[in-house]
Amino acid sequence: MSNKRALIIVDVQNDFCPGGTLAVTDGDQVVDPINRLVASGKFDVVVATQDWHPSDHGSFASVAGEDVGTLFKLNGLDQVAWPDHCVQGSQGAALRDDLNLDKVNMIVRKGLDSEVDSYSAFFDNGKRNATGLEGYLRDLDVVEVFVTGLATDYCVRFTAEDSEWCGFNTFVVKDATRGVNLNPGDADAALEALAEEGVVITTTDEILNS
Ligand code: VGL
Ligand code: ZN
After folding, report:
1. pLDDT computed for residue 58 by the predictor
2. Which of the listed residues 27, 60, 81, 138 has the most CB atoms within 10 Å of its CB?
3. d(CA 80, ligand 2 centre) in Å
4. Nearest of 67, 65, 49 to residue 149 by alpha carbon
């Protein structure tokens, strides 16, 4: 069985880029390295994810009656109150149109259940439901998973942690991610935590030159 490699492009959506409702600083800067990775031919499988919320999603500050950025409990789970973002079918939820989607094999939509947030491409935040991505990658004999996209401190982090938990050899491509940084340093702290958990932090150049 060969060591297949998957590239996961997390939530490179308009709302997480400058001009969006939950804009990540320089979020659009991940597109170029991701396109270079896609074009490199070094990945057997390419998966893109979309945060895909109903307009009454429980993580929205407007729905929860909380101020944006505050921490509250959503069905027993810690939850940050976010601005409305990535509402199903909206322009904000669309993938960036400069992202090269030609080689994308599968698109995972997550966060559809109003009652629970879903940062990871694999499971919701309570690990109650799976998206099917784990089985999809296993069926294709994927061994290595490379995670890119937005945001380092939320969906990239949770996706990488779950990938590692599923037993895939997991990498985060640092320069192909950007963080929300609700608190200064959150993105760097996320990368440090991931490294301690066994995720390899790498760069686009390192991959392209290997
Ligand atoms: C994300 C906050 C809320 C992300 C999604 O893609 O990192 N962050 N929903
Ligand atoms: Zn969301």
Report:
1. 98
2. 27
3. 10
4. 49
Global pTM exceeds 0.85: yes
How far is 53 from 121, CA to CA, in rounded Å? 14
Distance CA 24, CA 128 (A): 28
Cβ–ligand 1 distance for 52 under 6 Å, the answer no
- Neighbour tally for 202: CB within 10 Å: 16
CA Rg, the chain, in Å? 16
CA pair distance 172, 157, nearest whole angstrom: 9
Task: Give me the amino acid identity at 130.
Answer: A
**Which residues, given as ranges, of the chain have pLDDT below 50?**
none
Q: Do 95 and 101 touch, CB atoms closer than 8 A?
A: yes
CB neighbours of residue 74 within 10 Å: 21
The answer to whether 86 touches 92, Cβ cutoff 8 Å, is yes
- Ligand 1 contact via 12 beta carbon (within 6 Å): no
